[in-house]
Amino acid sequence: MTQPATIRRDTRPRPPLPEHLRTALSLAAKGVPVLPLRRGKVPFGNCPSCAGNACGGRPNMKTPGPCQCPGICHAWAAATTDPDVITSAAWAAAWRRAVCVGYHPGGAGLTVVDLDDAGAMVWARTALPATRTVPTTRGEHWIYRGTMPSRNAVRPGVDIKSTMSYARYLGPGTGPMADLPDAARALAVKEPPAARLAVRAAVAPAGVQGGECPHRTPAYLERGVAMAEQRITEASRAVHATVYRVFLAVLSRHGRCGCLTDAHIARLFTAAQAKGESPRHCADAWTNARTTLGL
Fold first, then answer.
1. Spatial distance between the Cα atoms of 110 and 178, rounded to a whole number of angstroms
2. Could you read off the pLDDT of 3-23 as tens digits, one per residue?
3. Is the pLDDT of residue 212 over 60?
């Protein structure tokens, strides 16, 4: 009688997964799209088929994920939560060379305010609500719940990393995570030169002396409030950011002399709510603007 074949199992210990790969799989299991970063803390280059975006490219896509090739191509767009992709042979060599783990904040519903120096951190503590923070080499990452367009150098030492961008994973951070504030959204809005001058002027003291209103006539204030209402009403996009910047401009000009009344403020809030803003968003934007100006 033929004896059944003996099945021998490989009992040899398997080599441990690279540390960065273990971290990536842990993040992916929590819904955070990940990718390996090489020396210089940057993504790996495109494969030969995708060099020069010959495949059509992914950078203009609004959702992350690899292109048709199995390689790690198109930077942030390669980020994924699929463990089969993360542990694939096509990604194995990259994990062996990786110096850290990157992730796509926007793909996880997050925004990272990257504060790159002490001055930026001082500004954030004044202008932004507290949220989860992660120490970096030179500053901090402030992580908020919500997404927005990414943009570098929104102010000295400050970058925004959210949609169509990647950030280094530096640990879970500390503190509860707050919702993305209007003050952060406003940073990514590109304003025309005249508006940028108005915002820059907003951070300077009004220079009121003797407690007298510098605006002389009620007509000046009325014209300013009417123009602010019109700007909110005509906003066709980025309403959150527009409302915040209008509030900032009005307060920078009229907030220190005491000439603004409850009726003026109500007019601005009414215009904002007519564009779909909630009373809470209006109040938050007003408070953030006052905080930014030190009022």
1. 10
2. 665 556 655 555 567 789 999
3. no
What's the one-letter identity of residue 256? Answer: R
Predicted structure pTM score: 0.63
Residue 211 has which token pair?
């407690």
Q: Which two tokens stand for residue 233?
A: 């009403």
> Which residue is associated with the tokens 């007019």?
267
Are 41 and 101 in contact by the 8 Å Cβ rule? The answer is no
